[in-house]
Amino acid sequence: MPSSRYFWFLWQFKLAVCQLSICADKEQNIRHAREAIQTAADGGSKLVLLPEMWNCPYSNASFPIYAEDIDAGDSPSSKMLSDMAKSKEVTIIGGSIPERSGNHLYNTCCIYGKDGSLKGKHRKVHLFDIDIPGKIQFKESDTLTPGDKYTVVDTDVGRIGVGICYDIRFPEMAMTYAARGVHMICYPGAFNMTTGPAHWELLQKARAVDNQLFVATCSPARNPSAGYVAWGHSSVIGPFGEILASTGREEAIFYADIDYAQIKERRMNMPLDHQRRGDLYQLVDLTFTT
Ligand SMILES: *[C@@H]1O[C@H](CO)[C@@H](O)[C@H](O)[C@H]1NC(C)=O
Ligand SMILES: *[C@@H]1O[C@H](CO)[C@@H](O)[C@H](O)[C@H]1NC(C)=O
Fold it and tell me: Which region is the signal sequence (predicted)?
């Protein structure tokens, strides 16, 4: 939980979303992500968003092999993010990588401020488990442990809430972020070829329009020969549910101009917050501490 109510941040800035192709070579993935951040920063972005599991193939078997111990400082992937944030003076929402901590593995997003400091670490809260006999089985919970915390960070580009992939399906989490004054929710995520076309855009728009804030998502580019085929279609959605920028299945770095004044305007025009019926329902944040 950010400690101060007031902090300085840019109200208008350029956001870059890096929908990267991921391969089996971790060093190569790190080099590739570094180049993407460089391109994004040189293109004038102040905030850079990376995909879910950008340093490894999205597979149960890969997670333990590619995992890094972030807290122990034994993490070439997050070191690169920190170095790039500092040298390019950008805020980075570092997608996610498999994180090793003690005997546990997490699906973890590191957030770096433009001074290279680690602002926060989101461990995917809702794990993706499917098991359709004879068809498809993917159980993150076979290998991963769920996080047990919300992640809200104050950055140079506003107050940002982070969720990973399946986390986007839970409106309570986004509502809690909105109640905590978040301007934008970033969801690195890799929806599949069924849920992608059915729900990916819908969920982003729903989270944005329900809460009247910005939503940005970043998927890996699609690799049809991968074990897990990602839908792609990373997007940036405005507080009226409008698509500000999006891409298709291929690798792409694309940009959106963010203006937080839009949040104020939409909330003034449609003051949902003042019209809620607290006598009929309440949002309860069970982890809130002052
Ligand atoms: C996932 O990994 C665990 C442990 O490495 C293994 O026991 C399990 O069979 C794997 N599941 C799938 C679907 O590959
Ligand atoms: C994607 O996941 C859903 C469950 O969330 C499952 O029903 C579907 O079969 C999966 N599709 C593919 C192509 O893996």
Answer: 1-18
Distance CA 214, CA 267 (A): 12
Residue nearest to atom 12 of ligand 1 (CA): 60
Instruction: Say if residues 171 and 203 touch (Cβ distance below 8 Å).
Output: no
Residues composing the chain: 290
pLDDT digit string, tens, across residues 4-60: 567 899 999 999 999 999 999 999 999 999 999 999 999 999 999 999 999 999 998
pLDDT digits (tens, 9 = 90+) for 53-65: 999 999 989 999 9
CA of 193 to the centre of ligand 2 (A): 7
From the list 166, 225, 215, 162, the residue with the least C-alpha distance to 190 is 166
Catalytic residues, by residue number, are 52, 124, 165
For the chain, give every domain's residue range. Answer: 9-268
Q: Which pair of tokens denotes residue 164?
A: 């990973």
Instruction: Kindly list the strands in the beta sheet with 184-188, ordered across the sheet, starting from the edge strand earlier in the chain.
Output: 152-155, 158-162, 184-188, 214-218, 235-237, 243-246
**Unique residue bearing structure tokens 């047990």:** 148
| Contact between 161 and 185 (Cβ < 8 Å) | yes
Q: Would you say 238 and 258 are in contact if contact means Cβ atoms under 8 Å apart?
A: no
Q: Does domain 9-268 have CATH number 3.60.110.10?
A: yes
Q: Which atom of ligand 2 is nearest to the CA of 228?
A: 14
